[in-house]
Design goal:
Largest interface: A-C, 76 and 81 residues
Number of helices of chain A: 11
Helix content of chain A: 55-70%
Largest sheet of chain B: none
Mean pLDDT of chain A: 84
Order of helices and strands of chain B: HHHHHHHH
Number of strands of chain A: 1
Oligomer: heterotrimer
Distance between the termini of chain B: 55 Å
Radius of gyration of chain A: 19 Å
Low-confidence stretches of chain B: 223-237
Shape of chain A: globular
Radius of gyration of chain B: 19 Å
Mean pLDDT of chain B: 73
Helix content of chain B: over 70%
Shape of chain B: globular
Number of helices of chain B: 8
Chains: A mainly alpha (314), B mainly alpha (237), C mainly alpha (646)
């Protein structure tokens, strides 16, 4: 916990928060650009998603005759949950001014709320495709949460902190390199699942039977769809911050905190590039395989925990 | 990077890789993949004595011989034999393990946790012995046993036995036991003979029965019922 | 204390008066409702007054009765009233037209059940406690069997009766052996089993999924929201020693039972087709979470980590209150759905959200909240238990680390599975198109059946914002229950209170942001009207409700993934023709404890009893022979063994 709230820190944090809110659609542009590069195409502009969102916001919305109204509301609630959760993240080494002990759970469960409300919105239309997507999404989320909690336990033991911000900005003094790598790998798998990227879900596919997330939003249009796109990349940005903060130990090493912020954002873009490369070089897994991969993520976090716990005992 | 720091981290990294191989062995269904994993394990086992060797002291010829022998046998020769047997028996994957892959992973994880817990009290004999050595070696042993118990194909069982042996070697090498090397050589010979015999046996069995599921070998016994005999003879190919 | 006495008297008299109305159902309902409501309101006021220190703890002796009200009993009375008030309000509408001539009897049993629950929390002598406990069981048995025309109801009531008696069979020896002093380990275990039967610990939970669907909805609401908690009251009230060994034993037992109960309960909830069965299994899960909380609390105290102990206890108490408010509301919602569609099979519903929008909204709120998702109150209790587990990880004691890790992982799975179960319930019941004519014809319930649902929501909002205020009592109780003489008011309590207050603030922020966004959407829609078109159908000319995902289909991946635990039985019926005109699939999931333990157990005893039955040949001289032999055996025993010692 901070002794006194430093103005500079606060400013830094708000800059980071603003960057997350404003720049997150860039990630989609970067991923698409990388994929286009690998396919030998020119690809859409990096800013394309901004144009799409602006266009969609101007359009009228549509609602299914079956719907009881959830289908139009859930994108807003999802984005709200994500924004609320983003309040808890640290940016660069600026600790969130809203953080409290145990807020890691609030962060996780807010993401969970977004997921549940999205599945409910999908099921609201009565479409069998959307039911399929929702069913798969929730199935995978059970195991993803297991893996995520494993990573959380790792962080808690490693930093002896209970607030998300403090955990991620901790100096990682006792970081066991191997354990850290295991945990980061587990987190990367969880990140791919949570943000519906390729080995688990294909955001580009046009075949409903193979979709998860995209199948859930088939009946959305206009502003709702804009919020869905925005929410997806905001979530990716937030999880990337999680990953980057874990991997770049002690951002406080950098000469200037602002440099740290820029480095962090650069690292997030690198994650996007990595995802783009992964999407261009691998095929989507069979659905039967996904739970196994999630179990593998859990296995990695468990190994990280084992290494950490028993190293301390030695 | 400082060489000292490098070697300090090299050994734990090797053990961690060994652990990762155990987990992968539990979940991979392709036999060729399993064989490669075991071969890689062999390579790691071969490297462990080299990594533990203090570079300040003059090199032991014995150490190098052991390492080379280990790598040659476990990383090259035995996997090659296994792969050949696999091809000649026309099997490429373990289709129906007795325990599902997800459960297998959890079981191996649990055995890892158990080994870590169990080896906590074990005194470490030397200065440069990694705290990972004993638990990882035990996990490897348990994984090998688990593979033998839970898989049907004779080849996978041989792979399990090999993993088991890798665990024993890793324990000996990792804990820097004095007479370990001699004992290991004996075991190594055993395993070599085993794989050799198994190769011939599997080849014969598969030619006779069109399958190599060892759990169906009980059809050979004269007490087995008629229906079992039928399914045994039909085979799966 | 006087307030609680007034409550009890009102419940007693109201219950007595109701059956005298004979055939005049509405009069009986009015009498029952008014006396019940007044009683609960007064009781709530009394319990709160005691908790907040307005009134002191007190003991009243009336004849042979000795009633004591202290903060623990007040805390466990809260769920009775919190679940009781909506249930009483709901009961009138629920019973209307379904209990001609028997309404008076319903109110007698219902009010007396409530009264017995209050009495259980007040009784202090073993005999009195046992009488109250048995009365609670018997009265609620009558309620479970209230709709006795159906065979399944009778079966469920029979199982419930067995569970009650088995509970008593363990409790009476526990009390006898326990005596008045410190309890030995054997008495402790017997007590745990006896009370565990009421709580629904794993293996002992079999009556819950049977009795809850059979009982009328208000009864299920009260039983699930309030009665099963009382099992924990019993456990906490046992005069166990507060030395290290006992606390450790108690902690580990509760923790293991809680972990299996939480995981198993929610897993089976996912697989259910009957709405109320799903809710009943979810009760098993929530009791499991309470068990985890109490278990961690005892362990923390045993190892001298008071912070963990207080945090875990506070989490468990908070979760108990949340569960009481939310689960009773959910059961009442299920009752409303039953009255509108005349079925509880979720695969035969659908599309009720448009037909019963208000019921839907309240059910949505309670369901999301009970899956422990944050902007609502269900999250708070779980958060505290999580924090306790995190603290246990870093406590530096191997046993505590070993306890904390499984708690974290199991709670994570339970959270995810709870989301699956409740999304399934919501979507199968309320969303999509109706799958049967009965569902299509469903209508919104009258206001009298909506109001109780609203009250449940109000209770949970109050809980969300009042949780920080409750912390000092929880800390005191935790200290008293584990025999720790540490003052928590300086350090732990403010920290926990501030955490809960922050969560409440975040909820406010969430609601404000969501409100602004929704308002913007409204304005946008006013400008640019929404187009209403059929759901996208991917080229099917005639999409019907039969094409949409049923609840069973929705959870199929999860059920298959956990098939090792669940053992679902799939039955496919299909014409064996080239173009099968008729195809049907049904998935049944039998309770694991029933399948693996109880059925073989009772089967074995049945066969053993059959063998013994041969002795009952009907010939008198054989009976006499048996008696003579027994007498001889006793003589020999007495002569050689007992006498030989002298």
């Amino acid at each position: 916990m901070m002794d006194s709230i430093d103005m500079n820190q606060l400013l830094l944090w708000f800059a980071g928060f603003g960057a997350a809110v404003l720049l997150s659609p860039l990630l989609g542009g970067i991923i698409n650009k990388v994929k286009a590069f690998f396919a030998g195409r020119k690809g859409p502009r990096v800013l394309q998603l901004y144009y799409d969102i602006a266009k969609l916001l101007k359009k009228g919305s549509i609602r299914s005759t079956t719907s009881a109204g959830l289908v139009g509301v859930f994108p807003l609630l999802n984005v709200t949950a994500l924004l609320t959760a983003a309040l808890l993240l640290p940016f660069s080494f600026a600790v969130s001014p809203f953080s409290f002990e145990g807020d890691l759970l609030l962060f996780l469960y807010l993401l969970g709320f977004g997921r549940v409300i999205t599945t409910l919105g999908a099921l609201d239309t009565g479409s069998s495709f959307e039911g399929m997507g929702a069913s798969r999404e929730l199935q995978f989320s059970v195991l993803a949460e297991l893996a995520f909690l494993g990573i959380a336990a790792f962080l808690v033991i490693e930093t002896k902190e209970y607030a998300l911000s403090a955990m991620l900005t901790g100096t990682h003094a006792g970081l066991h390199i191997l354990a850290g790598i295991c945990a980061a790998f587990a987190l990367f798998i969880v990140l791919l699942v949570e943000s519906c990227r390729v080995p688990f879900d294909d955001p580009e596919t046009h075949l409903e039977l193979t979709m998860i997330h995209e199948a859930m939003v088939l009946d959305n249009g206009g502003p709702g769809l804009a919020f869905i796109h925005y929410g997806a990349y905001l979530k990716l940005w937030m999880l990337s911050i999680f990953l980057v903060s874990m991997l770049l130990p002690g951002c406080s090493f950098y000469a200037s905190p602002w440099l740290g912020l820029i480095l962090q954002i650069g690292a997030i873009f690198c994650v996007a590039v990595l995802i783009g490369i992964l999407e261009s070089t691998t095929a989507r897994y069979r659905f039967l395989k996904v739970p196994q991969m999630l179990l593998a993520a859990f296995a990695f976090s468990a190994i990280a925990l084992l290494l950490l716990i028993f190293q301390g005992v030695k | 990077m400082d060489t000292a720091v490098f070697f300090e981290n090299f050994l734990p990294a090797l053990f961690a890789l060994l652990l990762a191989m155990d987990l992968l062995l539990a979940v991979s269904s392709r036999l060729l993949h399993c064989i490669r994993l075991v071969a890689f394990q062999g390579l790691i086992i071969g490297l462990i004595p080299l990594a533990m060797w203090q570079w300040t002291t003059p090199p032991h010829t014995e150490l190098i011989v052991i390492a080379v022998l280990n790598i040659a046998l476990k990383c090259v020769l035995i996997p090659y034999l296994l792969a050949r047997t696999m091809r000649s028996a026309h099997v490429c994957r373990e289709l129906e393990p007795l325990v599902g892959y997800g459960t297998s992973l959890l079981i191996v994880l649990a055995s890892a946790a158990f080994s870590f817990f169990f080896c906590r009290e074990l005194p470490l004999p030397g200065e440069n012995v990694s705290f990972l050595a004993a638990p990882v070696a035990f996990t490897t042993i348990l994984t090998g046993l688990f593979l033998i118990v839970s898989r049907k194909k004779a080849i996978t069982q041989a792979i399990g036995f090999l993993t088991f042996e890798n665990g024993i070697t890793a324990f000996g090498a990792g804990m820097a036991l004095e007479y370990g090397l001699v004992v290991e050589l004996g075991i190594l010979l055993d395993v070599f003979v085993l794989v050799f015999v198994m190769g011939i046996a599997v080849f014969r069995i598969s030619r006779e029965f069109q399958h190599i599921d060892s759990d169906r070998l009980n059809t050979l016994g004269d007490w087995s019922g008629d229906d079992e005999n039928e399914t045994g003879m039909k085979g799966e190919n | 204390m006087n307030l609680i006495l007034i409550t009890s008297t009102l419940l007693l008299l109201g219950g007595l008066a109701a059956p005298f109305c004979g055939k005049r159902d509405s009069l009986a309902a009015t009498i029952g409702m008014t006396s019940g409501l007044f009683a609960c309101a007064i009781g709530l006021a009394g319990a709160l007054a005691l908790l907040f220190g307005v009134l002191p703890p007190a003991t009243v002796r009336a004849g042979c009765l000795s009633l004591t009200l202290d903060s623990l009993s007040a805390l466990f009375q809260l769920p009775v009233f919190v679940a009781g008030i909506p249930a009483i309000l709901h009961a009138k509408g629920y019973l209307a037209g379904h209990a001609e001539g028997r309404t008076g009897w319903f109110w007698l049993f219902f009010l007396w059940t409530l009264g017995a629950m209050v009495w259980v929390t007040l009784a202090r002598t073993p005999v009195e406690f046992l009488v109250a406990w048995e009365m609670m069981g018997m009265m609620s048995f009558a309620l479970v069997a209230f709709e006795y025309h159906e065979k399944s109801t009778l079966h469920a009531a029979w199982i419930y009766l067995l569970a009650c008696h088995a509970g008593a069979a363990f409790l009476i020896p526990a009390f006898i052996f326990g005596g008045c002093g410190i309890w030995g380990m054997g008495a402790l275990i017997a007590g745990l089993i006896g009370f565990g039967l009421k709580i629904g610990f794993p293996l002992l939970h079999v009556w819950l999924p049977e009795a809850h669907p059979a009982a009328p909805a208000p009864v299920s609401a009260v039983m699930s929201g309030a009665m099963i908690n009382l099992g924990f009251y019993g456990i906490l009230q046992m005069p166990y020693a507060t030395d290290e060994t006992t606390l450790q034993t108690l902690g580990w037992i509760l923790l293991v039972l809680g972990l299996t109960g939480a995981f198993g309960g929610i897993l089976f909830a996912v697989a259910q087709r009957n709405l109320k069965r799903l809710l009943a299994y979810s009760s098993v899960e929530n009791m499991g979470i309470l068990g985890i909380g109490f278990g961690l609390g005892f362990l923390g105290a045993a190892y001298g980590k008071h912070v963990i102990s207080v945090t875990a206890f506070a989490g468990a108490f908070l979760h108990m209150l949340n569960h009481a408010a939310l689960k009773s509301s959910l059961f009442l919602g299920a009752g409303s759905v039953l009255r509108s569609t005349s079925t509880l099979n979720m695969d035969r519903m659908g599309g009720l959200a448009k037909r019963m929008p208000k019921t839907f909204l309240s059910f949505l709120f309670s369901a999301i909240s009970l899956s422990g998702l944050p902007p609502f109150n269900g999250f708070l209790g779980e958060l505290l238990i999580y924090i306790a587990a995190f603290l246990a990880l870093n406590a530096g004691i191997t046993a505590l680390t070993g306890a904390g890790l499984p708690v974290l992982l199991i709670l994570a799975m339970v959270g995810g599975l709870a989301a699956v179960a409740y999304v399934k319930a919501l979507s199968a019941v309320f969303l999509g198109e109706p799958r049967t004519q009965a569902a299509a014809d469903a209508e919104e319930r009258p206001f009298s059946m909506l109001l109780p649902l609203l009250i449940g929501a109000v209770f949970s909002f109050i809980l969300l914002f009042s949780a920080p205020v409750l912390m000092p009592f929880f800390a005191d109780l935790a200290g008293a229950l584990t025999g720790q003489a540490v003052d928590f008011s300086e350090s732990v309590v403010p920290a926990l209170a501030s955490i809960l207050a922050r969560v409440a603030l975040f909820s406010l922020f969430f609601s404000a942001t969501a409100g602004i966004l929704l308002r913007l959407r409204q304005r946008n829609l006013a400008k640019n009207a929404e187009k209403i078109k059929p759901t996208w159908d991917c080229g099917y000319a005639e999409p019907t409700a039969r094409m949409e995902y049923t609840g069973t289909a929705f959870v199929q991946p999860v059920v298959d993934f956990f098939a090792n635990f669940l053992h679902p039985v799939k039955k496919v019926r299909m014409d064996r023709k080239l173009f099968p005109a008729h195809a049907e699939i049904s998935v049944e999931t039998e309770d694991a404890a029933d399948r693996t333990v109880w059925k073989p157990f009772f089967h074995f005893f049945g066969r053993a009893a059959d063998k013994i039955h041969r002795l009952q040949s009907g010939y008198l001289h054989l009976y006499v022979l048996v008696m003579v032999l027994a007498l001889l055996a006793m003589l020999i025993w007495g002569f050689y063994f007992e006498g030989g010692a002298e």
